[in-house]
Design a protein that fits this description.
The complex is a heterodimer of chains A (114) and B (112).
Chain A lengths: L4 E3 L2 E4 L5 E6 L6 E8 L3 E9 L2 E4 L8 E7 L2 E6 L8 E8 L8 E2 L3 E5 L1
Parallel strand pairs in A: 2-11
Antiparallel strand pairs in A: 1-3, 3-8, 4-5, 4-9, 5-6, 7-8, 9-10, 9-11
Chain B lengths: L8 E5 L4 E6 L9 E6 L6 E6 L2 E4 L4 E4 L5 E6 L8 E11 L2 E4 L5 E6 L1
Classes of the chains: A mainly beta (114), B mainly beta (112).
Chain lengths: 114, 112
């Protein structure tokens, strides 16, 4: 397996634009996580899915953020409208079960909102 | 939430053993302790996980005392390439799901 695949690797967009980040988890993994990393706040868990169902989205900063997982092999994180403070590295991770197994992280998407 | 506390940074020299201790006083019965490593511009990578006593793999050892309120990650004979941020995590389980929360991590700098 190629691991967790995220796209794009880098995204630069203007304030107010819609941004969509994509993630393909490792085949067979039934948990998928979205994290955001900044210098100020470190790694924050935004939302996670189990078997394509959102379980906890309490980390999503506000209504401008939404995440979907239409099937077991694809998830999106959307920001609409984007703001400069959304600039960060967004990581997707997947794991086979839950907290008692390792999570595999993608390479991340570096988002810059200007 | 099971909060973790670890040193912000540590320095070491090549060839030395490095021990990073993490405190998790409110760890729950079902929680596992997991350590991740992160290099710049990369996602975190799993190092080791344990529940109690000692766990060892090809990369590191994890020591967990009987009360499980702390854990120590031991890296034998570090090299320059071990310079990274190390995160201690405690699975935060609750009815219907769980959260894996990253703390601030420990920035390890290995010198030649």
């Amino acid at each position: 397996d190629a691991g967790v695949i995220q796209s794009p690797r880098h995204e630069v967009t203007e304030m107010g634009q819609e941004v969509t980040l994509r993630c393909k988890p490792i085949s067979g993994h039934d948990y998928l996580f979205w994290y955001r990393q900044t210098m100020m706040r470190g790694l924050e868990l935004l939302i996670y899915f189990n078997n394509n169902v959102p379980i906890d989205d309490s980390g999503m900063p506000e209504d401008r953020f939404s995440a979907k997982m239409p099937n077991a092999s694809f998830s999106t994180l959307k920001i609409q409208p984007s703001e400069p403070r959304d600039s960060a590295v967004y990581f997707c991770a997947s794991s086979y079960t839950g907290y008692d197994t390792e999570a595999f992280f993608g390479q991340g998407t570096r988002l810059t909102v200007v | 939430l099971a909060k973790t506390t670890q040193p912000i940074s540590m320095d070491s020299y090549e060839g030395q053993e490095v021990n990073i201790t993490c405190s998790h006083n409110n760890i729950a019965t079902n929680d596992y302790i997991t350590w991740y490593q992160q290099f710049p511009s990369q996602g975190p990578r799993f190092i080791i996980q344990g529940y109690k006593t000692k766990v060892t793999n090809e990369v590191a050892s994890l020591f967990i005392p009987a009360d499980r309120k702390s854990s120590t990650l031991s890296l034998p004979r570090v090299s320059l390439s071990d310079t990274a941020v190390y995160y201690c995590l405690v699975g935060d389980s609750y009815t219907g799901g769980f959260k894996t929360i990253f703390g601030a991590g420990t920035r390890l700098f290995v010198k030649a």
